[in-house]
Amino acid sequence: MIPNQLVIVADAHLGAAPTSDEDALLAFLDELPARGDALLLAGDVFDYWFSYKRLIPRRNFRTAAAIAHLARRMPIWMIGGNHDRWGDSFWDADVGIRFDPHQLRGTLGGRELLAIHGDGLHEERPGASWMHRLTSSPTVIALYRFLHPDLGFWLADKMGHNLDFGVAHPDVVRAAAARQQAWATATLAKEPALGAVVMGHTHHPVAAEVRPGQWYVNPGAWLDGRRYALLTAEGASLHQYS
Protein backbone atom coordinates (compact mmCIF):
# COMPACT_ATOMS: atom_id res chain seq x y z
CA MET A 1 0.00 0.00 0.00
CA ILE A 2 1.39 3.40 -1.02
CA PRO A 3 0.09 6.07 1.38
CA ASN A 4 -1.33 9.38 0.22
CA GLN A 5 -1.69 11.25 3.51
CA LEU A 6 1.27 10.94 5.86
CA VAL A 7 0.95 12.15 9.45
CA ILE A 8 4.32 13.17 10.95
CA VAL A 9 5.14 13.33 14.67
CA ALA A 10 8.55 14.00 16.24
CA ASP A 11 10.24 15.00 19.46
CA ALA A 12 7.70 13.93 22.06
CA HIS A 13 10.58 13.01 24.42
CA LEU A 14 8.30 10.71 26.38
CA GLY A 15 9.89 9.90 29.69
CA ALA A 16 11.27 13.40 30.12
CA ALA A 17 8.09 15.24 29.09
CA PRO A 18 5.00 15.46 31.33
CA THR A 19 2.79 12.38 31.54
CA SER A 20 -0.05 14.44 30.06
CA ASP A 21 1.88 14.58 26.77
CA GLU A 22 1.85 10.79 26.56
CA ASP A 23 -1.86 10.70 27.41
CA ALA A 24 -2.51 13.14 24.56
CA LEU A 25 -0.35 11.15 22.15
CA LEU A 26 -2.26 7.96 22.98
CA ALA A 27 -5.54 9.71 22.21
CA PHE A 28 -4.04 11.09 19.00
CA LEU A 29 -2.93 7.61 17.89
CA ASP A 30 -6.42 6.26 18.55
CA GLU A 31 -7.86 8.94 16.23
CA LEU A 32 -5.09 8.89 13.65
CA PRO A 33 -6.83 6.89 10.88
CA ALA A 34 -9.24 9.83 10.56
CA ARG A 35 -6.32 12.17 9.81
CA GLY A 36 -4.16 10.15 7.41
CA ASP A 37 -3.37 6.72 6.02
CA ALA A 38 0.23 6.38 7.29
CA LEU A 39 2.36 7.60 10.18
CA LEU A 40 5.98 8.75 10.30
CA LEU A 41 7.64 8.99 13.71
CA ALA A 42 10.58 11.26 12.98
CA GLY A 43 12.81 10.64 15.98
CA ASP A 44 13.02 11.33 19.72
CA VAL A 45 9.56 10.02 20.40
CA PHE A 46 11.10 8.47 23.52
CA ASP A 47 13.65 9.86 25.96
CA TYR A 48 15.42 7.40 26.20
CA TRP A 49 14.79 4.08 24.45
CA PHE A 50 17.16 1.12 24.56
CA SER A 51 16.15 -2.27 23.16
CA TYR A 52 18.07 -5.20 24.57
CA LYS A 53 17.87 -8.59 22.89
CA ARG A 54 15.06 -9.74 25.20
CA LEU A 55 14.04 -6.56 26.98
CA ILE A 56 12.43 -3.20 26.25
CA PRO A 57 11.82 -0.25 28.60
CA ARG A 58 8.86 -0.45 30.96
CA ARG A 59 8.45 3.32 30.96
CA ASN A 60 6.18 4.54 28.13
CA PHE A 61 5.22 0.96 27.30
CA ARG A 62 1.67 2.21 26.67
CA THR A 63 2.90 4.20 23.66
CA ALA A 64 4.93 1.30 22.29
CA ALA A 65 1.85 -0.93 22.59
CA ALA A 66 -0.34 1.71 20.89
CA ILE A 67 2.12 1.92 17.99
CA ALA A 68 2.04 -1.88 17.65
CA HIS A 69 -1.77 -1.84 17.62
CA LEU A 70 -1.92 0.95 15.05
CA ALA A 71 0.58 -0.88 12.82
CA ARG A 72 -2.09 -3.51 12.22
CA ARG A 73 -4.26 -0.83 10.61
CA MET A 74 -1.83 1.34 8.62
CA PRO A 75 1.83 1.62 7.57
CA ILE A 76 4.13 3.16 10.18
CA TRP A 77 7.68 4.37 9.54
CA MET A 78 10.04 5.34 12.34
CA ILE A 79 13.53 6.82 12.39
CA GLY A 80 15.70 6.96 15.45
CA GLY A 81 16.67 10.23 17.04
CA ASN A 82 19.61 10.94 19.29
CA HIS A 83 17.42 9.86 22.25
CA ASP A 84 15.81 6.70 20.85
CA ARG A 85 18.13 5.37 18.16
CA TRP A 86 18.88 2.02 19.83
CA GLY A 87 15.82 0.15 18.59
CA ASP A 88 17.69 -2.96 17.43
CA SER A 89 15.24 -5.36 15.71
CA PHE A 90 12.34 -4.72 18.10
CA TRP A 91 10.35 -2.24 16.00
CA ASP A 92 10.64 -4.22 12.76
CA ALA A 93 10.41 -7.80 14.02
CA ASP A 94 8.06 -7.46 16.99
CA VAL A 95 5.98 -4.37 16.25
CA GLY A 96 5.78 -4.67 12.47
CA ILE A 97 6.81 -1.17 11.43
CA ARG A 98 9.68 0.08 9.26
CA PHE A 99 12.46 1.31 11.52
CA ASP A 100 15.90 2.66 10.77
CA PRO A 101 18.21 4.26 13.34
CA HIS A 102 19.28 7.00 10.91
CA GLN A 103 17.12 7.51 7.82
CA LEU A 104 14.32 6.07 5.71
CA ARG A 105 13.18 6.54 2.15
CA GLY A 106 9.60 5.85 1.24
CA THR A 107 6.96 6.60 -1.36
CA LEU A 108 4.08 8.97 -0.78
CA GLY A 109 1.48 9.43 -3.48
CA GLY A 110 3.91 8.23 -6.13
CA ARG A 111 6.81 10.48 -5.05
CA GLU A 112 9.84 9.59 -2.95
CA LEU A 113 10.54 11.16 0.41
CA LEU A 114 13.58 11.12 2.70
CA ALA A 115 13.17 11.13 6.49
CA ILE A 116 16.11 11.85 8.77
CA HIS A 117 16.05 13.12 12.35
CA GLY A 118 18.69 15.78 11.75
CA ASP A 119 21.24 15.36 14.52
CA GLY A 120 24.78 15.09 13.24
CA LEU A 121 24.15 17.37 10.25
CA HIS A 122 24.61 20.49 12.35
CA GLU A 123 24.72 20.98 16.08
CA GLU A 124 23.59 23.95 18.08
CA ARG A 125 25.87 23.17 21.03
CA PRO A 126 28.92 20.93 21.72
CA GLY A 127 26.93 18.49 23.86
CA ALA A 128 24.60 17.68 20.98
CA SER A 129 27.52 16.74 18.74
CA TRP A 130 28.88 14.48 21.48
CA MET A 131 25.45 12.86 21.91
CA HIS A 132 25.16 12.13 18.17
CA ARG A 133 28.55 10.40 18.09
CA LEU A 134 27.72 8.42 21.22
CA THR A 135 24.31 7.18 20.10
CA SER A 136 25.57 6.35 16.60
CA SER A 137 28.59 4.32 17.68
CA PRO A 138 28.19 0.54 17.16
CA THR A 139 30.89 -0.02 19.76
CA VAL A 140 29.10 2.05 22.40
CA ILE A 141 25.81 0.32 21.64
CA ALA A 142 27.40 -3.14 21.93
CA LEU A 143 29.16 -2.28 25.19
CA TYR A 144 26.06 -0.68 26.69
CA ARG A 145 24.16 -3.93 26.36
CA PHE A 146 26.61 -5.56 28.77
CA LEU A 147 25.27 -3.30 31.51
CA HIS A 148 22.42 -4.50 33.66
CA PRO A 149 19.29 -2.81 32.24
CA ASP A 150 18.47 -1.08 35.54
CA LEU A 151 21.95 0.47 35.48
CA GLY A 152 21.67 1.34 31.79
CA PHE A 153 18.37 3.16 32.21
CA TRP A 154 19.65 4.89 35.36
CA LEU A 155 22.66 6.22 33.46
CA ALA A 156 20.39 7.46 30.67
CA ASP A 157 18.27 9.34 33.20
CA LYS A 158 21.39 10.91 34.69
CA MET A 159 22.38 12.25 31.27
CA GLY A 160 19.23 14.31 31.48
CA HIS A 161 17.62 16.46 28.84
CA ASN A 162 17.00 20.19 29.05
CA LEU A 163 13.55 20.48 27.51
CA ASP A 164 13.63 24.26 27.97
CA PHE A 165 16.79 24.82 25.94
CA GLY A 166 14.89 26.30 22.99
CA VAL A 167 13.05 28.75 25.23
CA ALA A 168 16.25 29.87 26.91
CA HIS A 169 18.29 30.09 23.67
CA PRO A 170 15.92 31.01 20.82
CA ASP A 171 18.67 32.52 18.63
CA VAL A 172 20.71 29.32 18.80
CA VAL A 173 17.71 27.20 17.83
CA ARG A 174 16.76 29.53 14.95
CA ALA A 175 20.30 29.31 13.59
CA ALA A 176 20.26 25.51 13.85
CA ALA A 177 16.87 25.37 12.14
CA ALA A 178 18.17 27.57 9.29
CA ARG A 179 21.16 25.25 8.79
CA GLN A 180 18.84 22.27 8.79
CA GLN A 181 16.57 23.81 6.15
CA ALA A 182 19.60 24.74 4.04
CA TRP A 183 20.74 21.10 4.11
CA ALA A 184 17.27 19.92 3.08
CA THR A 185 17.12 22.48 0.26
CA ALA A 186 20.52 21.38 -1.06
CA THR A 187 19.48 17.72 -0.89
CA LEU A 188 16.29 18.39 -2.83
CA ALA A 189 18.29 20.26 -5.48
CA LYS A 190 20.64 17.29 -5.87
CA GLU A 191 17.77 14.79 -6.02
CA PRO A 192 14.95 16.24 -8.15
CA ALA A 193 13.00 12.98 -7.84
CA LEU A 194 12.51 13.65 -4.11
CA GLY A 195 9.16 15.14 -3.22
CA ALA A 196 10.06 15.95 0.38
CA VAL A 197 12.72 15.90 3.07
CA VAL A 198 11.37 15.42 6.60
CA MET A 199 13.34 16.17 9.77
CA GLY A 200 12.83 16.71 13.48
CA HIS A 201 15.45 17.53 16.12
CA THR A 202 15.33 21.34 16.24
CA HIS A 203 11.71 21.46 17.50
CA HIS A 204 11.21 24.24 14.95
CA PRO A 205 8.05 23.72 12.83
CA VAL A 206 8.41 24.30 9.08
CA ALA A 207 6.35 23.35 6.03
CA ALA A 208 8.06 25.04 3.10
CA GLU A 209 7.99 24.45 -0.64
CA VAL A 210 11.69 25.16 -1.18
CA ARG A 211 11.58 24.18 -4.86
CA PRO A 212 8.54 23.69 -7.11
CA GLY A 213 6.88 20.47 -5.98
CA GLN A 214 9.57 19.79 -3.35
CA TRP A 215 8.92 20.32 0.34
CA TYR A 216 10.93 20.58 3.52
CA VAL A 217 8.92 19.56 6.58
CA ASN A 218 9.66 19.66 10.28
CA PRO A 219 6.51 19.02 12.33
CA GLY A 220 7.92 20.77 15.39
CA ALA A 221 7.93 19.07 18.77
CA TRP A 222 4.99 17.14 20.14
CA LEU A 223 6.12 18.29 23.58
CA ASP A 224 5.71 21.92 22.46
CA GLY A 225 1.98 22.31 21.94
CA ARG A 226 1.40 18.76 20.60
CA ARG A 227 2.45 19.68 17.11
CA TYR A 228 2.33 17.45 14.05
CA ALA A 229 2.41 17.79 10.27
CA LEU A 230 0.46 16.34 7.37
CA LEU A 231 2.23 15.62 4.08
CA THR A 232 0.49 14.70 0.84
CA ALA A 233 1.55 14.63 -2.80
CA GLU A 234 0.12 18.16 -3.10
CA GLY A 235 2.03 19.68 -0.18
CA ALA A 236 2.51 19.93 3.58
CA SER A 237 0.70 21.63 6.45
CA LEU A 238 1.34 22.15 10.17
CA HIS A 239 -1.17 21.35 12.89
CA GLN A 240 -1.65 21.18 16.65
CA TYR A 241 -3.65 18.51 18.43
CA SER A 242 -6.11 19.54 21.07
Please sum up the structure shown.
The protein is α/β, with parallel strands linked by helices and 242 residues long.
Which features does this protein show?
23% strand, six-stranded mixed beta sheet, 34% helix, 242 residues, Purple Acid Phosphatase, chain A, domain 2, alpha/beta, single chain, 8 helices, five-stranded mixed beta sheet
What can you tell me about this protein's structure?
The protein has helices at residues 19-31, 61-70, 90-95, 126-136, 138-144, 149-159, 165-168, 170-190; strands spanning 5-9, 38-41, 76-79, 98-100, 103-108, 111-116, 194-198, 206-211, 214-218, 227-232, 235-240. It contains eight helices and eleven strands. It has a single domain (5-240), classed as Metallo-dependent phosphatases (Purple Acid Phosphatase, chain A, domain 2, 4-Layer Sandwich), CATH 3.60.21.10. The protein has a six-stranded mixed sheet with strand order 4-3-2-1-10-11, with no helix packed on it. Strands 5-6-7-9-8 form a five-stranded mixed sheet, with helices on one face. 34% of the residues lie in helices and 23% in strands.
List strands and helices in order, with pairings.
Elements: E1 5-9, H1 19-31, E2 38-41, H2 61-70, E3 76-79, H3 90-95, E4 98-100, E5 103-108, E6 111-116, H4 126-136, H5 138-144, H6 149-159, H7 165-168, H8 170-190, E7 194-198, E8 206-211, E9 214-218, E10 227-232, E11 235-240
Parallel strand pairs: 1-2, 2-3, 3-4, 6-7, 7-9
Antiparallel strand pairs: 1-10, 5-6, 8-9, 10-11
Helix pairs in contact: 1-2
